[in-house]
Amino acid sequence: MGARTQPYALQWIWPLPLFIGIYLAPESPWWLVRAGDLDAAKRALLRLTSLNRETDFDVDKTVAMMLHTTALESKVRRCESLVANNLLVLDVCLAKYEHENGRSPRDPHI
User: Fold this and answer.
1) Residue 5 has what DSSP assignment?
2) Could you say which of 30, 56, 60, 88 is the most buried, measured as most Cβ atoms within 10 Å of its Cβ?
3) Cα atoms in the 13 Å half-sphere on the side-chain side of 37
4) Rounded CA gap, 95 and 38, in Å?
């Protein structure tokens, strides 16, 4: 192999470990709670936590907290962060970005 083709050959080493890791990774308990599959969420939580008896981990309480948080999040409007005081914070952040980078993030020629 030439010096120019080695990086192209080496880039194909990564897909196999990534596919194996993705296949073996458990589902997110948060996603399972939001999908309504509470039993699978409990199993995923048990798989992701160590069963160290020194801690007082209760799967049912954790899933109940996830359900409560999901219910609270569903009540919040997505655009609520863009009202009144938060717009001032957004403007300050955009001005700082523009000052540090020399261009506006709203500039179409990025």
Assistant:
1) T
2) 30
3) 12
4) 44
Mean pLDDT of 13-29: 88
Domains of the chain, residue spans: 6-76, 81-110
CB 71 within 8 A of CB 54: no
**Triad 61, 75, 65: Cα angle to 5°:** 5
Q: Which DSSP symbol is given to 53?
A: T
pLDDT top residue among 77 and 98? 98
The Cα 40–Cα 54 span in angstroms is 25
Q: Mean pLDDT, to the nearest integer, of 6-11?
A: 83
Helices (H), the chain: 6-10, 15-24, 29-35, 38-48, 59-75, 85-101
Could you give the CA distance from residue 69 to residue 54 in angstroms, rounded to a whole number? Answer: 26
